[in-house]
Amino acid sequence: MPVSHATDASFEADVIASDVPVIVDFWAPWCGPCKQIAPALEEISGARTDIKIVKVNVDENPQSPMRFGVRGIPALFLVRDGKVQTMRAGAAGRAQIEDWINQSL
């Protein structure tokens, strides 16, 4: 499943109402660590069918990160059945991100 992009307007449908767990990546184009983790998220998204990964640009969509209390980026949230299960902040490699996902599901 390719990484998709959500907006404040589509967040409810893309994330909260999703029938599979969602990894939400709050990011911005100017954020170096966000650019670092992007390839890992693309690889994970392409390799897994049990989750979906949705990116939210915090500059263009301020309501969604505010709703989740995002204070720094990159911030990854695992949302299942409309509720935040867990989150992690900062850059990480693919193995670290996958470990976090597997422990959180």
- Spatially, the strands of the biggest sheet line up as 1-3-2-4-5
Order of helices and strands: EHEHEHEEH
Structural class: alpha/beta
CATH architecture annotation name? 3-Layer(aba) Sandwich
- Estimate what percentage of residues fall within beta strands: 25-35%
Q: Which fold name fills CATH's third level, the topology?
A: Glutaredoxin
Oligomer: single chain
CATH superfamily membership: Glutaredoxin
Look at the structure and give the CATH class. Alpha Beta
Count of strand segments: 5
Mean pLDDT across all amino acids: 97
- Report the helical percentage: 25-40%
Radius of gyration equals 12 Å
Termini separation (Å)? Answer: 17 Å
Query: What low-confidence regions span 5 or more consecutive residues with pLDDT below 50?
Result: none
* Overall domain count: 1
Number of helices: 4
* Overall 3D shape: globular
User: Biggest sheet: strands, sense, closure?
Assistant: 5 strands, mixed
Write the layout of secondary structure elements.
Elements: E1 4-5, H1 11-16, E2 22-27, H2 32-47, E3 52-57, H3 63-68, E4 75-80, E5 83-89, H4 94-104
Parallel strand pairs: 1-3, 2-3
Antiparallel strand pairs: 2-4, 4-5
Structural description of this entry:
With about 100 residues, this protein is α/β, with parallel strands linked by helices. It has a single domain, classed as Glutaredoxin. The chain is built from four helices and five strands, in the order E-H-E-H-E-H-E-E-H. It has a five-stranded mixed β-sheet with strand order 1-3-2-4-5. Strand 4 and strand 5 form a beta hairpin.
